Amino acid sequence: MTSVRRWAGVWRGGVYLLVSLLSGIVTVLALPVLCVPRLARPWADRHRDRAGRLLGLPTASRSAPRAAHRLAGAGPSTGRDLLWLPVHAVIGVAIGLPALLCVGNVVTGVVVTTLWWAFAPEDRPRPFVDVPVTGWATALTLGPLQILLLLALAYVCFPPMARAHARICLAVLSRSTAEQLADRVAVLTRTRADVLDAHGAELRRIERDLHDGTQARLVAIAMRLAVARQALSDDPRDERFLEELLRDAHEGTEEAMTELRGVISTVYPPILADRGLAGALTAVTARCGVPTRLSIGDIDRVPAAVEAVVYFAVAEALTNVVKHSRATTAAVRVSRTAGRLSVVVTDDGTGGADDRRGTGLAGIRGRVLALDGLVDIDSPAGGPTTITMELPCGS
């Protein structure tokens, strides 16, 4: 199993190095265009995300700069984004070319071993730079030997070379402590204002629901009971009239209770108190119109405010999947690492989700940011869509 993981790391490192070579060449060719800050920022963000994924950094540390850019403006980060362009143009090409040569010569070894006979003598691939292949004995000796030596080189060198590039990337693009603090203050100031607006709107909605619905029904019940009381004092023998009034009052009471439960459920879903977060999410995924797989790790006790945010966010995300994504399957994964709760919602739909176009994603982001959490939405055109949320939940 260790060997399999090691070769998986070699594969990831090789892909990372080859993509870095390609993006380094693109950076050289498109340098005048990428020097525009508006274009340099997403280019730098893309490399920061790649580096973070390779090094196994949490999503929070990768998505924080992007959220800060949106809410706090460019600031000093623009200088780092522009600095990354020449740095990556140099190290991306320098560190990617050896990987390309290694992979290319492995392919050459395979061709030499199996297809040497299909080439004219003067056009045959030559292993070990310039060793001629004269027959099967030479091909079956030099070809596999070249493949084995280069695979051994890749096994030893690809992972550390890829990690070195990723560390350089994060070192150039990382923010100072003062900048991180300034960005965090800007984010919290913005989200605090959003939360206050949302809180006021929610209070007005609850007041309107109670006034127009529950209160109106309770007034009607009180009036029916008053009429029944008066009828009872006037003519106790009119049982049919009294029965109708009491039946109407009873039905009105049940309807008022149903409406009241509906209002309460929008504040804090009763299912969370009854079944906990795991049970509530099980119910949400079971009701989803798209087959949804739920995976919940050992999350221990989660604060009530975090439970409510996760519940509403997952419910809204799955609603979006049903309404907009045209997906055939979805998945929800909840896990906890130390003091952070991670929630990942994925679907195999058409992608293109954007919180700037509504679709409920803005509400999800607002709920999560209000608790000092982080949200990352990865939804390229054509799919798939991945929404990652991380919330602090104590240690």
From TrEMBL:
It catalyses: ATP + protein L-histidine = ADP + protein N-phospho-L-histidine. Its EC number is 2.7.13.3. SMART domains: HATPase_c. Keywords: ATP-binding, Kinase, Membrane, Nucleotide-binding, Phosphoprotein, Transferase, Transmembrane, Transmembrane helix, Two-component regulatory system. CDD domains: HATPase_UhpB-NarQ-NarX-like (cd16917). It comes from the Bacteria. GO terms for molecular function: kinase activity. This is histidine kinase. The keyword Lipid metabolism does not apply. PANTHER family: NITRATE/NITRITE SENSOR PROTEIN NARX-RELATED, NITRATE_NITRITE SENSOR PROTEIN NARQ. It comes from Actinoplanes sandaracinus. Pfam families: HATPase_c, HisKA_3, Sensor. Residues 305-395 form the Histidine kinase/HSP90-like ATPase domain. The chain crosses the membrane at residues 15-40, 89-119, 139-158.
